[in-house]
Amino acid sequence: MTSTAVLSPSFNRLVEAFNDLLDDVGPYRAVSFILPVAPMPAPRPAHSRAGYSYCPERYVTWRGQVSPHIPALESRIHNRRCGVVLDLALPPYKTVSTPWPKGDNDNYEKAVWDIITKGGPIWKDDVQVCLNLTGKRFITDGEKPHAAVYIREIL
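Structure (tokenized):
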């Protein structure tokens, strides 16, 4: 197992439970890291009058902030199925409208997985993700917004 970041104890327990669920025999490759930028859900593409599709500017800016934090690793999960645990810690709203963060989990996943796919060192494509567990929450005292990521191959 390769680790590039120290994750919170609660996230480590979640990862341990995820690994116990898989209960694979033999060694497997895994990586964990933190993206120290507030998570953002992937928006639907916008379309110009000429018929071109494009991503909104704030999403393009966010991808530019996150991309440098994808670790350049030698251990790759190239042609294997993989599982992902994703912990999304979001900043609180200025005005309270719901006790949970807005945005669909699948849109947050898509944003993070697309960044990992474009970064290239971990997997070839996010189609390899066969099992995932994603949680979103507001940050706690002293914590900064981030996405904690754990990826492991499934034997």
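The mean pLDDT is 83. The first strand starts at residue 2 and ends at 3.
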